[in-house]
Amino acid sequence: MMLRDDDPPDRQIAKLTRINAVLIDRIDRLEESRGSAWSMFQAAVALEQEVLARTRDLERAMADLSQRNRELAVARALAEEANRSKTRFLRAASHDLLQPLSAARLFLSALTDTPMDPHQTELTDRLGSAFESVEQLMHAVLDISRLDSQRIEFNRQPVPLDDLFRRLAAEFAPVAQAKGLRLRFMPTTAVVDSDPIFLRRIAQNLVSNAIKYTHRGGVAVGARRKGAMCWLSVYDTGMGIPAVDRNRIFDEFQRLTHDSATPGMGLGLSIVRRACAKLGHPISLSSEAMRGTVFRVGLPLVQALSDTPRLTAAPLPALRGRVALVVENDPEMRRAYQMILRDRLGMVPRIAGDTAEALATMGDEPPDVILADYHLENGDTGFAAIEALRAASDRPVPAVMVTAHRDPAISRRCAAMGIHLLEKPVSPPDLAEILGRLLA
Asked: Whose CB among 192, 209, 237, 430 lies 3.0–4.6 Å from 292's, allowing a Cys bridge?
């Protein structure tokens, strides 16, 4: 829009008015633009200050977190060292604790074979029960300590379930009979992959629990194959487990009843759960009130038992007159072995304290079986004694290693040398059973 000299005055006024309005509008927009930019500049400055403040707060928090992490690392290292110290103490103490307990149980067993009046019989029965409770508690503490260790090793190998069932039957038959219960172990040819010591402990705790909480009827133990798994099952006709308690019973010191007539510490199922979790064996239970309970443990199948050699139990008369060379450094244990082997089993015991004395005792006549303690004096071990005695014999001599050390390395070496392992405290029925198998 332009002014012309020839435009009339009114038209020039109209054009000037419009030009003026456009100029004013531009000036207003320019002022608004300047105001917005200033506001943005002020906002940016404020935001920068806020960012700096938050950055300082974050740096302080990171420094504090780093300090807390250092303190946590130190605390964790101390806790791990304390746990290792506890494990080392328990391992070291287990031998010293179980050694006199083994001797006491063997002496008590020898005492029960002597004529006694009713009062003395009652006293020996109560002593036997007290020793059994102490033994169970010590086994439970040692088992939980091992299972809680991050460095636990298992000695996995093929385990014939029929052999396991036979040993459990010998162990629990008197307990079930005393309660008037039927105890049945179904024959099986299944061989499973597991740690034999911990698998036996799992089965022991399940059978023991079933007998404790069953007051009439009985307990049955069997194995059922399903695909690549074999389910070890323990059935009872007891009181059953309410649904609300089925998770709680696997915690420590949990019992379904506080009846003093039902013994136990509430640790058995906790050990079962821990051992099954470490070994990768699934566990399940089914129960019906006042009808009974069944626990099942899933075990990987290996092969049929018919493909593997087995040892069969020998009757006790087959042990009479057989020579057992005992290598044991503890005088009380030597005397206890001598009494059990000679008086109860009818064997001929030869006693030695170390490898050199065992070689001198053997002379030119190899024994029928060697019974050696793992931990001897002055660095000597049962392995050294067995190796030396076998090397000096003109025939392979069966051997049993007795130990309180639950070390997988010992189990592996026993398996490699063809030595049977017996844990302390030594029970006379277990000793008789394993010697019978070896000398069959």
From this structure: 237
The string of DSSP letters for 355-412 reads HHHHHHHHTTS--SEEEEESB-STT-BHHHHHHHHHHTSSS---EEEEES---HHHHH
Amino acid at 192: V
Q: What is the CA radius of gyration of the chain?
A: 39
Q: Is the dihedral of CA 9, 15, 19, 21 positive or negative?
A: positive
Mean pLDDT of 208-212: 90
Chain centroid to CA 396: how far?
35
Query: Model's pTM, two decimal places?
Result: 0.57
Contact status, residue 319 vs residue 400, Cβ threshold 8 Å: no
From the list 99, 135, 107, the residue with the least C-alpha distance to 329 is 99
Rounded to whole angstroms, the Cα distance separating 206 from 193 reads 19
Q: What angle do CA 273, 275, 279 make, to 5 degrees?
A: 120
pLDDT band at 314 (very low <50, low <70, confident <90, very high): very low
How many Å apart are CA 268 and CA 136, to the nearest integer? Answer: 9
N-terminal to C-terminal alpha carbon distance within the chain: 128
Q: Which of 399, 334, 342, 329 is nearest to 368 (CA)?
A: 399
